[in-house]
Write a structure and sequence with these properties.
Shape: globular
Protein name: DUF3048 domain-containing protein
Distance between the termini: 101 Å
Number of domains: 1
InterPro entries: DUF3048_C, DUF3048_N, YerB-like_sf
CATH architecture: 3-Layer(bba) Sandwich
Organism: Lederbergia wuyishanensis
CATH class: Alpha Beta
Length: 347
């Protein structure tokens, strides 16, 4: 009987020991250091780039050594929507004959598959292209522009020589609103003529991400620029607070890409006032791109009255005697005879 009691006591003791061990196990686990997941802000780092594109300020991992290409693009209503404008780094809008405007689109950071409709050259388009050391593309020319191009002051490809070869006619539009050139043909034409496609233009000045927060001035999220009495060439820009960019409109119609309807979006709008003079009975003009003068600069829904100067051939905004900084991205420059044709408002 006594032996049996001892067995019972030993069994109870064993059970108690097992229970104690099982209770201690979690205590041991709780003593191990807690692994803390790093906060998202600790993990995310803003990407830095070794280089940036000279005309947009956008970062890139590859040195941007491509030469700029400047193309005269048609803005007649029969030429809209155009092709390639959304990929231009800088676009100038200037008056040609009458109150018709044309564009000079400068490409460096992007190379559109196709560009156009391409239109004829004027001397001031050539002058702007020279500032960027660009390869100049046009289809046709005024008599004075023809002389300037023949003098060899700028490398150029012209549809008057290469119509049907480098330049192709679109069947869905009528001449002179149907001439296009691919970027592949621009490169082919450059190679055939021994034109270099390296040597990028000088870099503009751009805001850092942190500096963008400090932009201030007059609120202006709707801008209208009236070229003469014909509303077909009235340009409007509307600011979108969500994207931080401007959409562009001609005669109330949004400026988009012909093939896919992608909108042309603008980060900087510079409007410069300068002398315009009609030269002949055809209405051809002289536009003074050297004098400097008054200007408006629109960025992030804000307008500032500044000045412009010609710095080594490039139209450059100046504020308080220093080059004004640009928002990284696309820039449009509207050239007007007077800032009186410009109106803006804040909604």
């Amino acid at each position: 009987m006594k032996h049996k009691s001892i067995q019972i006591i030993l069994l109870i003791t064993f059970i108690l020991l097992l229970t104690a061990c099982s209770k201690k196990a979690p205590e041991k686990e709780s003593q191990e250091p807690e692994v803390k997941e790093p906060e998202q802000s600790e993990q995310a780092h803003e990407k830095t780039y070794d280089f940036h594109f000279p005309l947009t300020g956008i970062g890139t991992d590859v040195e941007p050594n491509r030469r700029a290409v400047a193309v005269t693009i048609n803005n007649h209503p029969a030429a809209r929507p155009q092709t390639g404008l959304s990929q231009a780094d800088i676009v100038y809008e200037l008056l040609a004959e009458g109150n018709v405007t044309r564009f000079l689109a400068v490409f460096q950071s992007e190379t559109p598959d196709n560009i156009g409709p391409v239109r004829s050259a004027r001397e001031y388009f050539i002058e702007l292209a020279q500032g960027y050391k660009a390869l100049f593309i046009a289809h046709g020319y005024s008599p004075e522009a023809e002389k300037t191009l023949a003098s060899g002051v700028i490398d150029h490809l012209n549809g008057m020589k290469y119509d049907g070869t480098l330049f192709k006619r679109s069947s869905d539009r009528k001449a002179p609103h149907n001439s296009y050139i691919t970027f592949a043909n621009i490169e082919k034409g450059a190679e055939d003529n021994g034109f270099s496609m390296t040597n990028p233009p000088a870099s503009m000045d751009f805001y850092t991400e942190k500096e963008l927060e400090g932009i201030n001035g007059n609120g202006a999220d709707q801008i209208k620029i009236v070229y003469g009495n014909n509303s077909q060439f009235t340009a409007e820009y509307k600011y979108d607070t969500q994207s931080g960019r401007y959409s562009r409109f001609s005669d109330g119609e949004q400026t988009v890409e012909y093939k896919n309807g992608a909108p042309v979006l603008v980060d900087n709008l510079l409007v410069i006032e300068t002398e315009h003079k009609v030269l002949d009975s055809s209405g051809r003009r002289f536009i003074n791109l050297k004098s400097g003068g008054k200007a408006y600069l629109f960025q992030k829904g804000i307008m500032n009255e500044i000045e412009w100067r010609n710095s080594d051939g490039i139209i450059t905004p100046y504020e308080d005697g220093n080059p004004a900084k640009l928002v990284p991205g696309k820039t449009w420059v509207n050239v007007v005879p007077s800032l009186d044709v410009v109106s803006y408002e804040q909604n």
